């Protein structure tokens, strides 16, 4: 008789627990109680497992600083890797964020890298000795890529994913993989094999998905930088939920080949291409990692990657022949997608961001010009086509996987996913035609003459072009577990294949609980659900959570996106500081 999914899950969880050294087990007094809520971010430094040096390594130095110290020998990789292995083990026990653990292999590799640097005086690649965590969908030789599906467990990968190969050649040390939701189409990271990942800042709120384990681990400082994947928001949503920076590149910038995605081979070519990208504590770490990947010539590992390094990409200083170096960053503010109206605190956040950017332009060397942009007539169309393309196979492949061992759907999926007839070739063709039509139409949004900009009274010849767009990451704050609403604020940019990132800006304060919804009927069912996240909830649950904005750039302008995010990170820092101080009063 074949094993049930319950048997497989129990074996898999025992395997994971056994890979944590007994000396790294957290005293039970520090572990969160079942069904309780709270903040566990400070437990790693209080529980007595980490040395003072390990606390310094994991809390004081960002990934960029670690790389600099490791490359010169000021830091030993074995010390850095051990520190993050220990902290990841602690994070796992507190918020259930890991799937595969390979601490022993990582420490062995770190020692080898230290020896090589000592012998040659040269680092191995631009990521020499840096520990990096990766989402469970990446394949690493000798370890499962089960993505939380019982039928995929205990079937170790025989090859590395393309990006894994690039990272290893650049000297990175991989030490763990992180949790995902069942089917990787949910926005709350729960599956039957590994269970649910919790949000470390408030365990009553969602950690997001599908790279939720990655977001929670980085938030716990159990990883200096992690890599997730994104086909509808799966990097940006966990970044938003955990108060982090997350970047979804354009397709073709970062290797994606060799993933375990649960879909039939070739499916992405008639659907929406997923992309891989960083989740980190700041923008400069994301840029450092993307630059390092480009230096590793990723096009030699994945035929979809463009043969163009980070340095060869268009930067802010090479925006257009008509623009001069130092010309203000031109930002379009999008306040709604026209399908779900953002709740009052999200609207206030966008207002405050626009006000801060306008007021900072006169005093900042990195001047910013702000215009309002209205894409509300496109939003509903983008959601409709995205949902159509994502359901081409009617979810039949996923149901085949989970029914093989009798698994049930996770709570978030239970009311959303069911078998449907596969779409015909002609239906797929029409969807792809609609996608191309929307991509073509959205190109007009960037141009002043395209008809999407609000009149701002400025004298212009009509040749101004937006550098980036700022918009909500969601129409609501970070919601309770299993309460995430529409994905359209992120998935729209997957359909359009535009690089985009999440930038933390504000800490939700008690004063942010104020505000009424607009009078009149909701726009639709999704809008009604969203309103319930304001009217039918104790708003105190949001207090202390981080509110973020999403930054979007034109297609393949990934370097411009990240450089713009760095400008905005600095310009909006006063908002984060003010709200952070107020939240502690």
From TrEMBL:
It is an enzyme of class 3 (hydrolase). One of its GO terms (molecular function) is amidase activity. It comes from the Eukaryota. Pfam families: Amidase. Substrate binds at residues 184, 210, 231-234. The active site is at 135 (charge relay system), 210 (charge relay system), 234 (acyl-ester intermediate). Keywords: Hydrolase. This is amidase. PROSITE patterns: AMIDASES (PS00571). The lineage of its organism: Eukaryota, Fungi, Dikarya, Ascomycota, Pezizomycotina. Belongs to the amidase family. InterPro entries: Amidase_CS, Amidase_dom, AS_sf.
